[in-house]
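hey team, just a heads up i'm posting the complex here instead of the shared drive bc the drive is being weird again. everything in one block, sequence lines first with there labels, then the predicted structure for the whole assembly after. its two chains so it's a bit long, scroll down
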Amino acid sequence: MVEKKKSGYWLTHLGLIIGVLFIFFPVWLTFVASTVTQEEIIQPPIPVLPGPHFFENYANALFNGVPEGYGKSPPVFKLLFNSAVMSLGISIGKIVISLLSAFAIVYFRFPGRKFFFWAIFITLMLPVEVRIVPTYEIAANFGLLNSYAGLIFPLIASATATFLFRQFFMTIPDEMVEAARMDGATPMQFFKDILVPISRTNIAALFVILFIYGWNQYLWPLLLTTDPDMNTIVMGINQMIPGGDDYGHWPTIMATSILAMVPPVIVVITMQKFFVKGLLESEK
Amino acid sequence: MEKRVIFKGWWLPFILVAPQLIVTAIFFFYPAGQAVWNSLFLPDPFGLKTEFVGLDNFKFLATDSYYRASFITTIIFSTLVSVFSMGLGLYFAALADRLIKGAGVYQTLLIWPYAVAPAVAAVIWNFLFSSRIGLISWYLGNFGYDWNHALNSGEAMGLVVLASSWGRISYNFLFFLAGLQAIPKSVIEAAAIDGASFWKRFRTIVLPLLSPISFFLLVVNIVYAFFETFGVIHTITSGGPQQATKILVYKVFDDGFVGQDLGSSAAQSVILLALVGLLTIIQFKYVEKKVHY
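-- predicted structure starts here --
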């Protein structure tokens, strides 16, 4: 701050605290709703302080899903597992295939290199939502409905990561390759022992972004998983609200919402440095 | 830009690009091509055969009042989401940038909603505004306002905008904060010595220097509002009431999977493909030339 007025200093904090409250407020009430009983919720207003049913509600959600009489859902731990497989598959799969292809495009000259680069590059930014019907047909033809492969593969077909690694590889000094070649390293040794280790910050940054991207997918798992046991948690919550607000079992739904947020939020907060780097760089 | 020092060989690089090329070909180029191809055909009502109709699907969309309404809804929706989330993002970033100590703490407290799926945010906001059990609608009721977004299209739009923007504020905040921190303090100090007030400095120095990043964010937020908000619409309104929140990507889904009108749905996909392509090109042209931060 340039000036040193006390009032401005406190107003700045006040403004930010209001912002933080606005951001926290809906999640706080969600948490509260996940610790009370159904009766307390359907009789508005809901309380503003947590109730005593935290363990009971979360254990019920995790191991039983919604109680009988409120529709059907698989136990939430299954949904969490499916989401974890999907988002890890997408992030790791995408990082591996794009490290390899960026390595090939930057460090080799081969016929069609330019063409391959553009073929990959053109997929940048084009979301799966746009080509959803034909992608669904292909997945169905390959028998990928209700499978992890079906959840993962269509979503790793994008160039963001390849482009990012290419940009990074271009900044690595040529002397590194020269030295490696002088020492008799094969291309794959150079890749494994030099390129991957010095890319680890970028890999971590991309991992955070891709993990969140995969975890938060909605439309694709909604179409692909007709078997409730294959649902992911983000789309599974909506399946717990069968028709209208009166029929859902809200403590379970709200506990599931909290459980759906916790893994990606933990990833963002514990890897904050990489997350900020990844976000600022992957979008430019 | 090219590397001068490279490895020799041609079969190894082919093997290395193969996994990505195969995935891209199967799950990207083939479906995109299929969408273009399907958009030229009209399946008969029984799904027994399809008839080549050329550009008729597009001609129909051009005159279809529902499609035009969906277009307008999408423009209103994406403008509101962008303005709301960018405005608040900039506001919080400008405040955090004024702090010497503590900006990091606020950053942590403000960025985590980025990790919350739009569809989950939708479940939460829908719960708070539910006409029967929602806390906010209950308070509104006490003030004599009868909130019901299942019936009132303005309220439905307001709610999907709120639910879509809430987590997006974090994203805009981070970019604006990075942009603000890249502005040299000496420029600001010089203006302060000349007697320019905070607001004057903000308007005449900071905002112009932020214009490249703002433009970039505008494009990215529009793309976000076009596509990634599907879960919000599907959870809260399903496009209703009376199509009031049926954005283009929702209509592709609705016509293709619910209405089984595959020709029209494919034509709509092609139009969306063209729109995203256009936005991507605009952004890359712009990023190449202008963004310095």
